[in-house]
Design brief:
Blueprint: E1 3-5, H1 10-16, E2 24-25, H2 32-38, H3 44-62, E3 67-77, E4 80-82, H4 88-98, E5 102-113, E6 116-128, H5 133-143, E7 165-169, H6 172-176, H7 180-189
Parallel strand pairs: 1-2, 1-3
Antiparallel strand pairs: 3-4, 3-5, 5-6, 6-7
Length: 193
């Protein structure tokens, strides 16, 4: 029996190494935007779990005897999901919108082993500093880097995006991209790890 992470995220790969030494990686070929659109009207926090489940199901079809883990992280502010910014302008809009408010980082996780499916969503509250001249400068510096453009909400808390964050309430590693402690417990309950 193999363990397969259905994600190409380098951050998730690194975090999975905290749980289990040997695992494979296989990307699920799904249209995330189409799935998100089909879930319009659904609680935004639950969208990540639905995407994680879809990723895991796609890979599990080809690996029915293995353990497959799907994950998806969303940044939710003012009732809407903030995806990965397409460009500098959108990154600036997102980070400015997040300034001074508390938002939710929700990571949906789905674990499939044969007929057994366990899925959950871990939520962490994050608050950015208020928008002042210092914060405006930090946003400008940050969006000049390559960092914001492959991350939900346009920031990585494990990189210089941390300079924008005033406080968090919940699992820090969830904000990075995988709720390691909770996933480790689920895998242990399934006899993995």
């Amino acid at each position: 029996m193999k363990v397969i992470l259905a994600s190409l995220s380098p951050r998730r790969k690194e975090l999975m190494n905290l749980i289990i030494g040997g695992f494979d990686i296989e990307a699920a070929d799904i249209d995330e935007r189409a799935i998100e659109e089909s879930l319009t009207g659904t609680d935004p926090v639950k969208v990540s779990e639905a995407l994680a489940l879809e990723k895991a199901l796609v890979i599990a079809k080809a690996h029915p005897d293995d353990v497959v883990i799907g994950a998806d992280t969303s940044v939710i502010a003012n009732g809407k999901i903030l995806g990965k910014p397409r460009d500098r302008e959108e990154a600036k809009e997102m980070l400015t919108e997040l300034s001074g408010i508390e938002h939710v980082v929700a990571t949906g996780v789905a674990v499939i082993q044969g007929e057994k499916i366990i899925s959950f969503t871990e939520e962490t509250k994050v608050k950015f500093w208020d928008l002042d001249p210092y914060m405006e400068q930090k946003i400008e510096e940050y969006i000049d880097s390559d960092d914001p453009y492959d991350k939900a909400g346009g920031y990585g808390i494990q990189t210089k995006g941390a300079l924008l964050v005033e406080k968090i309430d919940g699992d820090y590693l969830n904000v990075v991209g995988l709720p390691v402690a909770r996933l480790a417990r689920v895998l242990s309950e399934m006899g993995v790890g």
